[in-house]
Design a protein that fits this description.
By secondary structure, this protein is an alpha+beta fold. The chain is about 30% helix and about 30% strand. β26 and β27 form a beta hairpin. α10 packs across α11. The longest helix has 19 residues.
């Protein structure tokens, strides 16, 4: 048994105090391991950098020696000690869906960031005693008795976030005997009737497609911010979603709320239950290299939106908007010609989820989702609508997740090819493991349901006219992306260059507002690290986009398969 006491003083300083007590079982030394990464984000995180103080004591409260062996592993000398206690504090000032945050209004913990396991004893039971204000309620998927939480095993603890505050709003709904909890932290006004109706619909759709659910209870934890935000993190029987602003979540941001929630719920099956063999079990001390990020996030990105559509929560326009967003992200990332989605997923451990070197890699989210769209349609074509990508995922669930084993790259590919045939094998070769142009294959796949790709101009005017994307950082206009061989590129302008003037005038307000009234040529004053120069750029049509449009000349067979696709 590992007992934790969690408390804090001066919450504005954001430090949370932890006290861990455990039996030594007569061992001469005990090692305490903090995770180096968290499941759901495949990059090293170095959570230990947030620890300010660390000490160890025996059962009589006498200090005992310890050594830090690695960046996140401590070893305590326990010869002659029956019970060891370690105390440390953790800086909790990162408010997102996967981190920790403390202020005067809430205590929010993701245990994988800040709580230890004893090396060799990951299956120990944990009790967490929370010393919090009497007005606070606790939102958690762990077993709860008053202010004490309990759970068995570090894997389960690591995936059990906790929110404590006096402003939690809570509602529930039931689907097929499973209770779903909706927790809202932050200022907002949930429309419970609307939420329960829509969440029930897509939850039921997901359960039906898999033929069961890995858990008998599920919690949605919503961290609602007063500013614009968007982030979600999946766990075995819960998810944390960060979204804002709070006064927009039931209308302007409602599609986003539904989208991220459906996505994270789908992860309950895909990546939490259906897990790559390389992550069976998790090793929290180092990278868990695997190349099937295109399954973990590509399938989930595509299916999360598809479940909203086939359950009737999204209409066609709302659904196809999500597919157009995937296509836009694909077309504006020239890394698609340099690193495949399989290799890009592997390299998340190298450079994480940030942009990184320009045009170096692609994404396991939109790019892999487009691959899954193509595979889904080819399976529907090959089987006359009798099977789909749902069939693949259900087989993975039944043959791997329910049998307690991980799947390999070959397992996933072979099941897809079994249902979809040689065209699916070609998609794997060209697009999942290769860097061939997606568009011809995508057009062919879309013919199954009589969907066409139509050209459209990029709505971002700097991207459309000159081939660059810029953002405002600390009051400065900074170029972030440049299309290779665009007029911007050919004139020596690069990412991280600053635009200080347009046509001799300092940039005030939005760049788009200035460019909408442009003439044929524009003069940009560009500031680099060691120089400043005026550069004339002539407008063209860059970063061109495509969009999905229903064909008006669909055959009866195409209409039938379109119905199968959308209702499947």
């Amino acid at each position: 048994m590992i007992n934790y006491t969690i408390s804090y003083n001066n919450p504005h300083r954001h430090y949370v105090d932890f006290e861990l007590t455990a039996s030594t079982n007569g061992k001469e030394s005990v090692q305490f391991q903090l995770a180096a990464w968290r499941p759901g984000r495949y990059e090293l995180a170095d959570f230990a950098q947030n620890i300010q103080k660390w000490s160890a004591f025996d059962e009589n409260n006498n200090p005992i020696p310890f050594t830090k062996i690695t960046k996140d592993l401590w070893e305590v000398t326990t010869e002659g000690v029956r019970e060891v206690t370690i105390t440390y504090n953790f800086y909790a000032n990162q408010l997102d869906a996967g981190a920790c945050y403390l202020d005067e209004h809430q205590l929010y913990l993701n245990p994988v960031h800040c709580m230890f396991y004893i090396a060799g004893k990951k299956e120990e039971e944990y009790t967490l005693n929370l010393e919090i204000p009497t007005t606070y309620k606790i939102a958690s998927s762990m077993e709860q008795k008053e202010n004490t939480l309990s759970i068995k095993g570090y894997d389960a603890l690591a995936e059990s976030p906790i929110i404590c505050s006096d402003s939690l709003q809570h509602g529930t709904y039931d689907v097929d005997g499973i209770t779903f909890h909706l927790w809202f932290q932050g200022e907002c006004k949930p429309d419970w009737k609307k939420l329960k109706k829509d969440f029930s619909a897509f939850s039921k759709s997901q359960i039906n497609h898999f033929g069961g659910c890995p858990t008998n209870e599920y919690h949605f934890f919503f961290q609602i911010t007063p500013y614009r935000s968007y982030h979600g993190v999946e766990h075995t029987n819960n998810t944390v979603v960060l979204l804002g602003p709070g006064n927009e979540i039931m209308y302007k941001r409602y599609e986003d709320l539904l989208g991220v929630s459906s996505h994270e719920l789908y992860h309950t099956w895909n990546i939490k239950a259906i897990r790559p063999v390389e992550m069976y079990p998790y090793d929290y001390t180092k990278e868990n290299y695997f190349r099937t990020g295109f399954v973990a996030e590509g399938v989930t990105t595509y299916m999360g939106d598809m479940m909203l559509y086939n359950s009737g929560v999204f209409n066609w326009n709302e659904f196809i908007k999500t597919q157009n967003q995937n296509l836009e992200r694909h077309l504006t990332n020239y890394g698609r010609f340099n690193l495949s989605v399989a290799d890009s997923g592997f390299d998340n451990w190298l450079d994480g989820y940030k942009l990184g070197a320009p045009d170096r890699k692609t994404s396991i989210y939109p790019d892999a989702a487009l691959c899954m769209l193509m595979i889904d349609l080819e399976i529907i074509r090959n089987t006359g609508g009798k099977e789909s990508l749902h069939s693949v995922m259900k087989e993975l669930y039944e043959e791997f997740a329910l049998k307690g084993k991980g799947y390999s790259e070959d397992d996933f590919r072979n099941i897809c090819v079994k249902f979809g045939g040689l065209k699916v094998a070609k998609i794997f070769e060209d697009h999942i493991y290769g860097t061939e142009n997606y568009i011809p294959t995508l057009k062919t796949a879309l013919e199954v349901v009589s969907i066409e790709l139509h050209e459209k101009k990029n709505p971002n005017l700097s991207a459309q006219y000159f081939g660059f994307v810029a953002v405002k950082e600390n009051g400065k206009i900074i170029i972030k992306k440049v299309e290779p061989n665009s007029v911007t590129d050919k004139n020596g302008i690069a990412p991280e260059d600053e635009i200080t003037k347009v046509n001799g005038k300092k940039v005030e307000g939005k760049l788009a507002d200035i460019l909408k009234d442009f003439k044929k040529e524009v003069t940009f004053t560009i500031k680099k690290k060691f120089s400043k120069t005026d550069i004339n750029l002539t407008a063209g049509n860059y970063y061109p986009l495509l969009e999905f449009i229903k064909s008006e000349n669909a055959t009866n067979e195409q209409l039938t398969l379109r119905k199968v696709w959308s209702n499947n």
